[in-house]
Amino acid sequence: NACYNDIPKKDFKEIGQISDLLGEKAAKILLQSAREKAKPAAAGDYFSGTPVDVSSLTRVSKDDLGLLPQPSQPRYLTALVGIYVRSQPYGGSDKSSN
Fold first, then answer.
1. Which of 36, 41, 77, 88 would bridge 45 by S-S if both were Cys, CB 3.0 to 4.6 A apart?
2. Non-local CB neighbours of 27 within 8 Å, separated by 6+ positions
3. For the segment 60-73, what is each residue's pLDDT rounded down to a tens digit?
4. Residue 11: φ, ψ to 5°
């Protein structure tokens, strides 16, 4: 059976370089995936319905533009609540257009 000590010393440098390259590529892939998951919502996106059940609340906004995704395992359960004045443009002067 072949073992670690059977690898010629001259090959260790190349093995190290390949291992470093694989590690860098893997780290970039993982970081890119994490960044994509943490991007704020775009126009039309809606992902604020979990983990807190908000099905009994009246939803007025058309999307979650600018909100970050909900954590998969939150430390606390909270809710973002806002006031929408139906007679005012966009629900009031302190609101955005979404």
1. 41
2. none
3. 777 777 777 777 77
4. -80, -20
